[in-house]
Design brief:
Elements (H helix, E strand, L loop, with lengths): L2 E9 L3 H9 L4 H4 L5 E5 L10 E6 L2 E12 L3 E8 L2 E13 L2 E11 L3 H33 L2
Antiparallel strand pairs: 1-7, 2-3, 3-4, 4-5, 5-6, 6-7
Helix pairs in contact: 1-3
Length: 148
Amino acid sequence: MAHAYRSSIRIEASADVVWQVLADVERMPAWTTSMTRVTLLGAGTTLAVGSHVEIERPGLPRATWEVDGLTEGRGFSWSSTTPGVRTGVAHLVEPLSDVACEATVAVAQSGMLAGLTDLAAGARTRDLVDAELADLRAEAELRGRREP
């Protein structure tokens, strides 16, 4: 059985500004409380399909994620597998106008232990997703006000 959580937030900044904040994944801990450490592994220093990223989040075990989807300027997805659970997370940016967009984070877990994982850490995961979106809005709106 799959378990999923999806949350969206309106951001008063252009989709380009939001994408610049979001795609620089190693800087996430500088603007969100939902990430303690994010490190791109291997030779690449930019987000790309096939990239591996090590993530530490408050209250959750450290995990290595693989970028499995990327649409430049609009979103990326990554997934991580632990025994019995596959977790996929999509980060999406949808323009609403030249100066506003909607950002979405969608989490889906599947596998034999997905239900147990959701019981144990689902509330914490949902809190972290909501915190990430709120922090993304704050950072992007701040950067958007700095742009000419």
